[in-house]
Specification:
Family: Belongs to the protein kinase superfamily.
Structural class: alpha+beta
Distance between the termini: 99 Å
GO molecular function, one term: protein serine/threonine kinase activity
CATH architecture of the largest domain: Orthogonal Bundle
Number of domains: 2
Binding site for ATP: 125
Transmembrane segments: 14-40
Strand content: 5-15%
Strand order of the largest sheet: 1-5-6-4-3-2
CATH superfamily of the largest domain: Transferase(Phosphotransferase) domain 1
Order of helices and strands: HEHEEEHEEHHEEEEEHEHHHH
Biased composition (Polar residues): 378-393
Number of strands: 12
Largest sheet: 6 strands, mixed
């Protein structure tokens, strides 16, 4: 009996030892597994951090490289001191315009050349992005219908862009007075408006048709059409520009930016951006040239506050189209011209993007109208500009 008890105790002890051994092995395995997990996690974290730093450094290097390339392509690099001197210390009397991300000053370089200098606001990521886009794009785009970027300054927080000077300012200032503007506005005659419409169209045509991939301006409006001393028009302000899709009918998705009254409805609703978005904005500018009205003015009588909604039903009606014409034109136009321009505007502002024409079609429609006119208020003529070049961007 006693032998049996000893045997039972021995077996019980053996089972207990076996359980303890297995438990210890399990705990040891868990500790090893946990240690290995920590090791792998730490190693992956270091790799991710290294990758992030590499990408950040590459982006910085890319931005720097882009600016270096821009310099090699003819852009001048100015010091802040040079531009401070050129603008008389950025005096208020030299302010000729205000943009979303800074003020524009009249300046004179040491060689006597007149320039326009945009001083970017130091605050804001969007302003920094606009600066990079303008330098990178305008260093590669070359057309007589685009505003020439002469150079830039990038010293610490100072970001400045130096453009050719356009003596007659923005188209907007001549169509309707701007409160507080230093520029003297003048009423544009019909022939001059036709030429401006054609040259602005050629600017967009160059961006859409002669550049690969196409460039979408995204903020095309009358204030971004600048006029030189002979009233030649050039498209300006490319801070919001985007590279479009290379696929026919394709789009790029982006957050909605632009100016109220000029933004295409499908872009505003979906964020899908195409060259047809610019075509819509161009149609609004054509309406401004016809009517002398701003795109949105809720102080007007009911039904007339939104220019496109008020004008569109009248554009294709021979009798009603005269109701929208700018009174300052004083009937100096022919009905044939008016009907043709109104028809082009109507096509450009169609709610459905697919129904809008290409800018090449718009140019082709405008050329015969302008050729039949010889502007008397301009020293130059629309045909005096040279054809565009076709870079890759």
């Amino acid at each position: 009996m006693e032998a049996e008890n000893d045997e039972y105790k021995r077996k019980e002890h053996l089972v207990l030892v076996t359980i303890l051994v297995f438990a210890s092995l399990a705990i040891a395995s868990l500790l090893v597994a946990f240690s290995y997990y920590c090791y792998i996690r730490n190693k992956v974290s270091r790799r991710l951090e290294k990758a992030r730093k590499t990408v950040a450094n590459e982006e910085k290097a890319s931005s720097f490289a882009n600016i270096q390339v821009a310099t090699q392509k003819g852009l001048q690099v100015f010091t802040f001191k040079q531009l401070h001197s050129a603008t008389g210390g950025f005096g208020k009397s030299n302010i000729i315009g205000h943009g979303a991300f800074g003020s524009v000053y009249r300046g004179v370089l040491q060689n006597g050349r007149k320039v326009a200098i945009k001083l970017m606001d130091s605050a804001g990521k969007q302003g920094e992005e606009e600066f990079k886009v303008e330098v990178e794009l305008l260093s590669r785009l070359h057309s007589p219908y685009l505003l020439l970027l002469i150079g830039y300054c990038s010293e610490s927080n100072h970001k400045l862009l130096v453009y050719e000077f356009m003596a007659n300012g923005g188209l907007q200032e001549h169509l309707y007075p701007i409160s507080g503007s230093n520029n003297v506005s003048s009423s544009l005659d019909w022939d001059t408006r036709l030429c401006i419409a054609l040259e602005a169209a050629k600017g967009l045509e160059y961006l859409h048709e002669h550049v690969s991939p196409p460039v979408i301006h995204r903020d095309f409006k009358s204030s971004n059409i600048l006029l030189d001393r002979n009233f030649h028009a050039k498209v300006s302000d490319f801070g919001l520009a985007k590279l479009g899709s290379e696929k026919v009918g394709g789009h790029v998705s982006t957050r909605v930016l632009g100016t109220q009254g000029y933004v295409a409805p499908e872009y505003a609703l979906t964020g899908h951006l195409t060259t047809k978005s610019d075509v819509y904005s161009y149609g609004i500018v054509l309406l401004e040239l016809l009517t002398g009205r701003v795109p949105v003015d809720m102080k007007r009588p009911p039904g007339e506050g939104v220019l496109v909604s008020w004008a569109l039903p009248r554009l294709t009606d021979r009798e009603k189209v005269l109701e929208i014409m700018d009174l300052r034109l004083d009937g100096q136009y022919s009905m044939k011209d008016v009907i043709q321009i109104a028809a082009i505007a109507a096509m450009c502002v169609q709610p459905e993007a697919d129904y809008r024409p290409l800018m090449a079609d718009v140019v082709q429609s405008l050329v015969p109208l302008v050729k039949n006119h010889r502007p008397t208020s301009r020293a130059g003529s629309c045909s005096s500009f040279h054809g565009p070049q076709s870079p890759k961007v």
